[in-house]
Amino acid sequence: VSTVIENIACDLEDNQQHVKMGRLHLVDLAGSERQSKTGATGQRLAEATKINLSLSTLGNVISALVDGKCTHIPYRNSKLTRILQDSLGGNSKTVMVATIGPANYNYDETISTLRYANRAKNICNRARINEDPKDALLRQLQSEIEVLRQQLADGVAIPDGSGSEGEESDGEHKVEPLTMDTLADAEEVDTVEEPRSHPETPIAPSEVNVLKEKLENLQKKILVGGENLLEKAEEQEKLLEASAKELEQRMTREEQLQRELEIKEAERINIEERYSSLQEEAQGLTRKLKKVTALLLSAKEELKDVTQENQREMEGLLDNVRQLTKELALQETIEKIFIPDHYKEMIERHAHWNEDIGEWQLKCVAYTGNNMRKTLCPLSPGPKKEIPVPDLSKVYLTYNNERLGTAAKSRAKSGRAVSSRASTAVTDH
Prior knowledge:
It is a single chain. The protein is mainly alpha-helical. It has helices at about 35-40, 45-65, 80-85, 85-90, 105-120, 135-155, 165-170, 180-190, 205-220, 230-340, 340-350, 370-375, 400-415, and strands at about 1-10, 15-25, 225, 225-230, 350-355, 360. A hairpin with a 5-residue loop joins strand 1 (about 1-10) and strand 2.
């Protein structure tokens, strides 16, 4: 709703100003489309709902004004009708422009708009100029005084019915009451009435006295209680002008505050949008953080499992190392006890690494004691012959673990090899 207030000061013939006030309302009542056609959502949908509610209240006010039987007009049910109270049923002229379209698609909206405008057209107001009643009455009295003075100066007789003694007695020491009829008559008094055309006749002394008395009575109407109503009217006009200026300043201040409010509202909307975007960004970062946290926990669990597996493997390797160390110490001990040093070098020269089986092999191992024992023929039945004991001082004997202890004992007791317990390998020097 746009409101324009105008104050017009008119200069009269006596160099006095006459103030008139007018107010102009420009209102856009928006469209009558349904929500299903406009497709409005969110904030626009809420605004459209409030606008439709105001238009509905405006329709109720128009119906109440058209219906002469209605005693109550619901102006206060909406801010729109409250602002347009003077435009609808007050001292104003109202023009409503209804925009319609010929399309069949908008048939219902067109009929509704035309009915709405028809109801508004049936409102009847009697518009009058917004003028101070005191100014109108004073101007009327001044015009009468000027006419009487002119008649006295020209020596013209008083027309019949121009005055009455009752009027003089009634207005001797008081001002006529201001009523709506006085206001209605005052706006019609824009120019001074010309005296009725009568033939100029000489004025008798009694008529001159009557004119003087009437002039004094009219001046008494202006001077009441020692106070000049003309001067008072001028003061009131000055106060009115000051009030109008103050009102204009207030309206300017209000417009400025309204602009500041719109700026603050825009800033608030921007902050809300920024907050929404930051909140959405924070939510996205929170989701990413949860995923990264889950991956970190999974990686920690995997690292823990790998660490435990490595620990187990290290313990297994350490056990193997300790076992191998023990076996190596055992083998070294056995070598020190049973293998002379000069035979070790010979064994090392004849040993070679077999890639296929991944072991060290010794040449001519097939001729060692254990292997030769397997090839011996069984003893023939009959009397046993005494087998001479060979000289084994220069022969190196090897045994497997199974026969090692037994062969050692046998050598200690008999000093000869037993064919059923061990086999020999002879090496020539």
